[in-house]
Write a structure and sequence with these properties.
Blueprint (H helix, E strand, L loop, with lengths): L7 H18 L6 H8 L3 H32 L5 H27 L3 H24 L2
């Protein structure tokens, strides 16, 4: 297995897009209040843990971008549409299925799944578009 070249600016853009989407997705404008209610996490606890969570999210977004970059290169995908499709396919196989199993075992509501999985679907599709178009 050979690793493809890495465009570090595209990786950085994919990581930044993760934070922009997350900041909007988990804002009062969209889903944070519903997510807090469904997760059972109190707002003060959420806010107190946010700095550590953001550090973890940075490393997670970086690894996701690096791995997705390799998948895109191995699949020889070029262009926005192909990147969006790869992002959606990776989401379906490795995120949606794992999260569904997890919420089933944890007895969490389907709405919690929809918010969490939806966020990852959007971030993977946007990162896929960035990484496949900006080679």
């Amino acid at each position: 297995m050979q690793f493809a070249p890495i465009n570090w600016l595209a990786i950085a853009a994919a990581v930044v897009s993760n934070f922009v989407i997350g900041g909007l997705w988990y804002s009062p404008l969209l889903f944070v209040n519903r997510w807090l209610s469904l997760s059972g996490v109190e707002k003060r606890v959420f806010d107190a843990g946010l700095p550590v969570a953001l550090i973890g999210d940075f490393f997670s977004a970086l690894v996701i971008a690096l791995v997705l970059n390799q998948v895109i290169r191995w699949a020889a995908v070029v262009g926005l549409v192909g990147g969006i499709e790869i992002g959606a396919l990776v989401w379906l196989g490795f995120v949606a299925s794992v999260l569904l199993s997890q919420i089933t075992y944890e007895h969490r509501p389907l709405g919690f799944y929809a918010i969490s999985a939806g966020y990852r679907l959007v971030t993977l599709m946007v990162a896929g578009a960035i990484l496949s178009a900006w080679r």
